[in-house]
Each structure stands twice: as structure tokens, then as C-alpha cells.
């Protein structure tokens, strides 16, 4: 009982300093693997050092931090659940002990018994969004965490800058707006949209990173290559002067309403 109380007290002290507790091999074996334990532990196995070049690890860690902070600062916070992290460069022996050769990986260590198959989060199929992790934790521990995200104004700022740029361009060229019907301009704009869409899609794929090589980077390269091949599709539409069909090709669905009517008038 005294040993258990000491372990819980130490974990609570670490949690008061930071929501995610960093662990090396010794701490992992003492606080996660060794009994007695009356608490559950979520462990993120990762490789965050720059030389590992694991961009997926950094993205997953951001979501993990959001989830851990949501738990730490919620009214339901208790000593029944702790969030920890084991970095490959700080706990390579833990990776070897668990026969683990990929990162990031999320595991739940229950308060009693050994982890089961369902205690390993299916990151490759589900992704690593904080909300998905919270749902998995609720299924494994009955602890429900409401995810709170800090406000992000980057999208609003980017939109404002884009609108300002377009508005300034239209103002400077207000006496000559023929460039709006330039085929090459529409083709380049469509290509940029496709490349951005490919980047955003790959950012949320949640692919595994096998130590030494990133599959996510290969996936991005493939999407960029496909987008470049799609340039032929852009030319096919603009050659026919069909702006409505071009917008349908870009956004994946027909446009409706006033925008559709306005584009039809340009044909």
C-alpha cells in the first residue's frame, strides 16, 4: 500500500508540472509495468528527435498534447489515468522489450493484467486526431474526455491575406479585367488547388513511421506526382473554355446557384 501510494503521489506531482509525463526505461518499468497499480496509463511511443525525420510523430504528438491537456484541466481529472510518452532515443530498451519497430504507437496499460490487442490504438486505420484517441480511451477505461482545442486563427489570417491580395490585384487592374478569362491563369490556379488538397489530405492520413524511413513522405510524393498528371485534366477543360466544368473538376461536385449561372454566361 505504501509503495502504491508513493507511485500515485509521484505521478500526480509530475502531472501537475506537465500533462504528458516523459519516461525512460527505468520509469516505464517502475510506474507502468510493475505492480501494484490502481491506475491506467496511456503511453505514446514515438521518435521526436530531428535526426529521426518523423513528421508524423510530431503531428501525432500535437494531438496527444491536446488530449492530455484536455484531461489535465478538466473537472473530471483524477489519479485514475495518466498520459506518458517514451521517446526512442530515451528508451530504446523499452522498444526492444515490447518488440516494437514503428512509431508513433499508442498503447493502454490497464490497472490490472496485461494489455490486450485492443489496448493498442489502430492508428493506421483511424488516424491520430485527439477526438479519435479520446473515444478509444473511453472504450478501454470508461474515462470520458471532452477535447478542448486552443483557438487557431491561422486560417482566418490566411483568408484575410488572400482576400486582400485578390482585392488589391483587381483594384490595380480595374481598367483591364481581361486577365480573368486567361486560360493559363485558370490552369495554374487549379493545379495549385490540387497540390494543396493533396498536402492537406496526406497530413491527416496518420501513416506509420518505421524507424529510419517515412512512408508519409513517399505518400506525399505520390500525391504530388498524381496532381501533376492531373494538369492534363486542367488543360482539357480550359481548352474547351468551360469554366463551369473546370470548377466541377477542382471541387469534385457541380456548382449550384448564382455562381453556376455566372460561369455559364462566360461560355
TrEMBL record:
Protein name listed in UniProt: Tumor suppressor candidate 3
Subcellular locations according to the entry: Endoplasmic reticulum membrane
Organism: Chelonoidis abingdonii (Abingdon island giant tortoise)
Record's keyword annotation contains Membrane: yes
GO cellular component: oligosaccharyltransferase complex
Transmembrane segments: 153-172
Pathway terms, separated by semicolons: Protein modification; protein glycosylation
Xref: SUPFAM superfamilies: Thioredoxin-like
Membrane topology of the entry: Multi-pass membrane protein
Keywords: Disulfide bond, Endoplasmic reticulum, Magnesium, Membrane, Signal, Transmembrane, Transmembrane helix, Transport
Pfam families: OST3_OST6
UniProt cross-references to Gene3D superfamilies, sorted A to Z: Glutaredoxin
Gene Ontology terms describing biological process: cognition; magnesium ion transport; protein N-linked glycosylation via asparagine
Keyword Cytoplasm carried by entry: no
Family: Belongs to the OST3/OST6 family.
Source domain of life: Eukaryota
Amino acid at each position: 500500500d505504501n509503495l502504491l501510494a508513493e507511485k500515485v503521489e509521484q505521478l500526480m506531482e509530475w502531472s501537475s508540472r506537465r500533462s504528458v509525463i516523459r519516461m525512460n526505461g527505468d520509469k516505464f518499468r517502475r510506474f507502468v509495468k510493475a505492480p501494484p497499480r490502481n491506475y491506467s496509463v496511456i503511453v505514446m511511443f514515438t521518435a521526436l528527435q530531428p535526426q529521426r525525420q518523423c513528421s508524423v510523430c510530431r503531428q501525432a504528438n500535437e494531438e496527444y498534447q491536446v488530449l492530455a491537456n484536455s484531461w489535465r484541466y478538466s473537472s473530471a481529472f483524477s489519479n485514475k489515468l495518466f498520459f506518458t510518452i517514451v521517446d526512442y532515443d530515451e528508451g530504446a530498451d523499452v522498444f526492444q522489450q515490447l518488440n516494437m519497430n514503428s512509431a508513433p504507437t499508442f498503447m493502454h496499460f490497464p490497472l490490472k493484467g496485461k494489455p490486450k490487442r485492443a489496448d493498442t490504438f489502430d492508428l493506421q486505420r483511424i488516424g491520430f486526431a485527439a477526438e479519435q484517441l479520446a473515444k478509444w480511451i473511453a472504450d478501454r477505461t470508461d474515462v470520458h474526455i471532452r477535447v478542448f482545442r486552443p483557438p487557431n486563427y491561422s486560417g482566418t489570417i490566411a483568408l484575410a491575406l488572400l482576400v486582400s491580395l485578390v482585392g488589391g490585384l483587381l483594384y490595380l487592374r480595374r481598367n483591364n479585367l481581361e486577365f480573368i478569362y486567361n486560360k493559363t491563369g485558370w490552369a495554374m490556379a487549379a493545379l495549385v488547388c490540387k497540390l494543396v488538397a493533396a498536402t492537406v489530405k496526406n497530413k491527416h492520413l496518420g501513416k506509420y513511421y518505421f524507424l529510419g524511413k517515412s512512408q508519409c513522405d513517399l505518400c506525399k510524393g505520390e500525391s504530388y506526382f498524381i496532381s501533376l498528371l492531373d494538369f492534363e485534366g486542367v488543360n482539357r477543360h480550359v481548352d474547351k473554355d468551360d469554366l463551369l466544368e473546370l470548377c466541377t473538376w477542382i471541387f469534385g461536385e457541380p456548382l449550384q446557384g448564382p455562381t453556376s449561372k455566372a460561369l455559364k454566361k462566360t461560355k
